[in-house]
UniProtKB/TrEMBL annotation:
<protein>
    <recommendedName>
        <fullName>EAL domain-containing protein</fullName>
    </recommendedName>
</protein>
<feature type="domain" description="EAL">
    <location>
        <begin position="20"/>
        <end position="278"/>
    </location>
</feature>
<dbReference type="GO" id="GO:0071111">
    <property type="term" value="F:cyclic-guanylate-specific phosphodiesterase activity"/>
</dbReference>
């Protein structure tokens, strides 16, 4: 029998699998090249207070132009960046870039809170690189920013991770505002929520999608909102795309909304155009 060669191995993959493999390889390589922010950009999506209609803050979202693949969605590349830990240098760039943008808006008369997505890999013990805490405190001190206006969005899946939550608690004690993102997607225990230092709960878009046709989704959103308020937390609903969804979640008592109905994510300069609304 012939020895199994690399050529044989390659031939057992279908052409579809080969294409996927080549793409994920190109993403990994590209992320390494872009780990310092090259080819990356941040866009900002406003969050709106439902009752007053005022913009209270923005969430920073990454955009990436890959040299060969073109635009790649964060839904595709963030999990790769987490697995390969490129998210650690990239995450540092995101924090510095966002806080500098926040300071620039303030110099131009627009005082907004900023939401930064922080991935579990950035909080893991021995993550390497500069600790998130040091990056945040350095930049806030240097730029004279109010730490409570810096919202760190961590996902619900982090709640059961004791070591990471200790780090989150340290960040909360230092004055940063903790937000739990995508709440309801991962079925974290409610007791973990009660113990967490988070001040805001972001209700997953999944509940909003069918809220107009499905009374059960309304019941869940109302329940989460009452729970959050009972724990002294504010709620944000994400993914509001039309007025009927907005009316439904407003009826549930949600405080803040984010979604295409109000604004799509936009570049930092365009945020200045919101000055009249804010
Ligand atoms: P996320 O943090 O839950 O962000 C919300 C996502 O929903 C964003 O997608 C946003 O553009 C999208 N969105 C907002 N309003 C609507 C709407 O009305 N309808 C619909 N269909 N979508 C809406 P995006 O920018 O593609 O980001 C996807 C995910 O990638 C984020 O989910 C977050 O988990 C991750 N991500 C994005 N930027 C960063 C970052 O800077 N750092 C880290 N660690 N993760 C990031
Ligand atoms: Mg988020
Ligand atoms: Mg979310
Ligand atoms: Mg998310």
């Amino acid at each position: 029998r012939e020895a199994l060669t690399a050529g044989h191995l390659v031939s057992v993959f279908s052409s579809d699998q080969r294409r996927r493999l080549a793409r994920s390889r190109a993403i990994e390589d590209g992320l390494w090249e872009s780990r310092g922010g090259a080819g990356m950009a941040l866009v900002y999506q406003p969050k709106v207070d439902i009752l007053s209609g005022q913009v209270t803050g923005v969430e920073a979202l990454m955009r990436w132009h890959h040299p060969e693949l073109g635009t790649v969605s964060p839904a595709e590349f963030v999990p790769v960046a987490e697995r390969t830990r490129t998210i650690i240098p990239l995450g540092e760039w995101i924090i510095r870039e966002t806080l500098n943008q926040q300071a620039e808006w303030r110099r131009k008369g627009l005082d907004l809170s900023v939401g930064i997505n922080v991935s579990p890999a950035q909080l893991a013990a021995g993550a390497g690189g500069t600790p998130v805490m040091d990056i945040l405190t350095d930049e806030c001190d240097r730029l004279d920013l109010d730490r409570s206006m810096v919202e760190l969005e961590i996902t619900e899946s982090l709640l059961p991770d004791r070591a990471a939550m200790d780090e989150v608690r340290t960040l909360a004690d230092a004055g940063f505002h903790i937000v739990i993102d995508d709440f309801g997607r991962d079925h974290a225990a409610l007791s973990l929520l009660a113990e967490s230092p988070a001040r805001t709960l972001k209700i997953d878009k999944g509940f909003v999608d069918n809220v107009v046709r499905n009374d059960r989704q309304v019941a869940i959103i109302r329940f989460i909102t009452e729970l959050a308020h009972g724990l002294g937390m504010r709620t944000v609903v994400e993914g509001i795309e039309d007025i009927r969804q907005l009316v439904a979640v407003a009826g549930c008592g949600c405080d803040v909304a984010q979604g295409y109905f109000y604004y799509r994510p936009m570049c930092g300069d365009r945020i200045l155009g919101l000055k009249a609304d804010a």
